[in-house]
Amino acid sequence: MDFSVDIFLRQKWIDPRLVFTNMTDITRLELDQKLIDKVWVPDTIFTNEKEAAVHSITVPNKLMHLYQNGTVFYSARIGMTLNCHMELQKYPLDSQFCPFYMESYGYTTENLVFHWDQKNALEITDVELPQFFIESVSYFDRCDKDYGEAGIFTCLEAGVRLKRNTGYYVIQVFVPSILIVILSWVSFWIDIDSTPARISLGVLTVLTMTTQSSGARSQLPRVSYVKAIDVWMATCLFFVFGALIEFACANVTFRGKKKVNGLHATAQESGDGAPNKSKLRFFKKCDDPKRRARYIDKFSRVLFPLAFIIFNLIFWMYYSFAPDDNQRIT
Question: Of 201, 153, 170, 25, which Cα lies nearest the Cα of 92?
Fold first, then answer.
């Protein structure tokens, strides 16, 4: 819920006390650090800042130019970590708007008013982020704050919209989970008599899916709403668990074969040793339990892949085109 930036904060204002006109051959004065500390500067603060520092290697990264008409140009290089309220319902297919707010701490609008530069209010250099793309142009606006008895304080707002790079999650989360789900379907082609093999495969895929789901969520904040990755992981876990339950149903059906065979033998030995024709007709009408168990497997070979494909279509279409809740730039 935060982001780090390295900015060059540039401010320009006119101070009539610093006008000089007796040096016609000099258009501006470049002040050193000692003189910078003696000149008044706006008391600018970043209200959503968690931690910040002015770079000081090898000297404090500050610059000040003083022009003849009293115009002061001041620049400082600042590294900051800023709070960014993120809406993670679509994570990791989300985009986020991360703002920063600049206010005057001690001067109300009666004495100090901030304005954005009309030409270059906010410039973003070409940067490559490991998890995000800069999706759109920068945003800037006013956000003056009324603090009641303290007064109204000038405020400027700026920010960028970041689109999350899904390449990492496709490789590390989506593709492995799809392969695990497909692996759980292999049990449908294993003979119904191979109980140890099918049980081992089912339990292995369930445990692997659970471990991967925990690892994918370990880096996220504990939010109370459902995220896209939660839907994906829960559905994949449902499919691998369903494959294990399918074997349990098929195995119960197959074990009914012994009971039917036992009842069939009892029917043949009833009476005076002669077969009971009415009972034989009844048992002949009964389906072979092994055949029914195989039918369950054949039905699952079609049902599970088809259901998973339908889920993928719905999932990717919804989370790819659904609007983000955290929108500021259009």
Answer: 170
| CA nearest neighbour of 279 among 287, 291, 270, 288 | 270
Q: In whole numbers, what is the pLDDT of the chain averaged over residues?
A: 83
The gap between the terminal CA atoms of the chain, to the nearest Å, is: 22
Q: Which two tokens stand for residue 325?
A: 């809740």
The partner residues of 62 in beta bridges, in order of sequence, read 76
Return the closest-CA partner of residue 303 out of 200, 226, 188, 196: 188
Q: In 3-state terms, what secondary structure has residue 39? A: coil
Give the C-alpha separation, 146 to 160, whole Å: 25
Round to whole Å and give the CA distance between 125 and 7: 10
| Beta-carbon contacts of residue 330 (< 8 Å; ≥ 6 apart) | none
The reported pLDDT for the residue numbered 285 is 45
Q: Retrieve residue 323's tokens.
A: 């609007």
Beta strands 62-67 and 44-46, pairing class: unpaired
What contacts 134, CB < 8 A, 6 or more positions away? 124, 127, 160, 161, 162, 163
Identify the DSSP state of 225.
Answer: S
Q: How many CB atoms lie within 10 A of CB 102?
A: 20
Q: What is the pLDDT of residues 59-81, one digit of tens each?
A: 889 999 999 888 999 999 999 99
